Structure formats: C-alpha cells, structure tokens
Amino acid sequence: MSVDPQKEPVKALLQMLDLADGGGARTLEDIFVGQTITSMRNRVYGGQVLAQAAMAAIRTVPEDRAIHSMHAYFLRPGDVNFPITFGVERVRDGRSFSARRIHAYQDGKTILSMIASFQATSGGLDHQDEMPLNVPDPETLPTLRDLLGSIDLPEARATAFERPFDMRYVTEPLFLPWRGTNEAYNAVWIKALAPLTDDPNIHRAALAYASDYTMLEPVLRRHGKSWVEPGLNVASLDHAMWWHRDARADEWILYVQASPSASSARGLGVGRMFTQDGLLIATTAQEGMMRLPEFHSE
C-alpha cells in the first residue's frame, strides 16, 4: 500500500511530540527526551523545541489544567543529530494555576529556557480582537509545494516537503526576491497536513510548533527584504505565546503578524491566530536578531 507523502511530516510531528520519560530519572526536575525525526538542516527548528518543551511541562500537571502561556529564550542552536533532554521543575501548584520551568539541554548545555503557566478552566470576562476582513479563502491560495516544489535547492525543498503544516500565504511569500509593498504585516493560513489526535494538548503544542515559522517576516517585509537576501543572518532570541481558546491545529487557522519596531539589529514580531469563523485562539510575540551586511561594523 502506498503512503501519502503529505502524511509523513505529520507522522514525524506526532513522534517528536511523544517524548520519552527519561527512564524515570528525576532530581529537582522531571526528565524527558525528545527526538528530531528528520531535517534537511543542521539546526533544530525553534518551533520544535518550543512544542517539545510545552509537552514536557504538560506531562507534569493535572489533566484539568491547560497551558495558557509560555515565555521562552533560545540560548543556543540545537543540533538535529542528537536528542534533546528536557528538565521540568515543578515551580508551583496553586488552587487553579500551575507554573513550570523547563530547560532543554544538548551536550550538557542549555539550548532553551522556558517558563510555562497552566490554569484550570474558569469563568470570567470575555472579549477579543476582530479577525481581519476580506481575507481570501485558504483553498483559493497556492500551497508551498506549488510555490517551491520545483526549485532544486535544499532549503526550498525542505520548506516545500518537510513541514507538517499546509501554509497558504495571503501576503506575498518571502522565499523569492521581494517585489511587494513595504509594510510591517504578514498573513498566512495554516493547518496540519493530516488529521491529528483528539487530544487538545497535541493541538496546543502543534500550534506552538507552527507559530515560529513566520514571526519575523513582517520585519523583513517592512524593509523590502526576503529570506534570500544576500548575507542575511536571522536567529530567534525569544518567543512568547498565550493560548486564549481551544482550536484544532488540523483545521484552517489564520495567522497574522505585525512588527511594531526594529532597532539595534533586532526585530519584533507580534502575531494573532484566528479560526476560520473568527475566534481569536492565540497571541504570539518574538524578537529576533537580524543582521545584514550593510550594517556590519568594520
């Protein structure tokens, strides 16, 4: 029986989120181990470490408490050739909130440091931003495979065939030399390429995984740059995410980002995720180092 190639990246995503328990090892931390299933790159994708760290923390809290926020710093690049060890410190368990500190390690060094907060379901005030108007239906937009699948470059093929998410750009994609308008705004539809499980934690972690793809693109777009800019060097410095309401990551999500500021070789992106019927489900923020040759000192 032939295997649907579009399902393979999703299978790999679910395997990455299924952390080993570290053989029961525990000191002040609960220990988990995660793998990078496949990658055409040498560095671990930042969204993978975010999602695996979130899953490690989720494994240590009561089932009735859902992750509602995380704040993480990327400290070192991860190596795809080695597993990642996650240490979770149970910082606090209150009446309705739990806090966890998660460190991701490779070769005895910390590559990511995160604090995550969990909450039992509670009633309260409720409002949200409105979804942007007049956004094209995702099914009318080209896929990444349509845009990049025929380009014989490793990075293009990784983007087109390795990602577990179907991504449909509303704004002009930044994978080719820039030819659009210089605005600090980016919009893309995303959903998993194949159905996920019904576990809401898998969907929360999957959205964390996808949230890192395009966070800094509004910075590039504002200055007429693209990912193929000669000499461009970009690295995520930190990442924050707030889950407001539950949604499935295998159904279409509109992910819109803006950049309020760039300075001192750093750019800031802020994002919002909406379901197709307009429900605001998450907000994200990320600052990244963004170096260009024309600004290098002598």
From TrEMBL:
Residues 169-289 form the Acyl-CoA thioesterase 2 C-terminal domain. Pfam families: 4HBT_3 (PF13622), Acyl_CoA_thio (PF02551). Residues 41-119 form the Acyl-CoA thioesterase-like N-terminal HotDog domain. Belongs to the C/M/P thioester hydrolase family. Keywords: Hydrolase. It comes from Kocuria carniphila. InterPro entries: Acyl-CoA_hotdog, Acyl_CoA_thio, HotDog_dom_sf, TesB_ACOT8-like_N, TesB_C. This is Acyl-CoA thioesterase II.
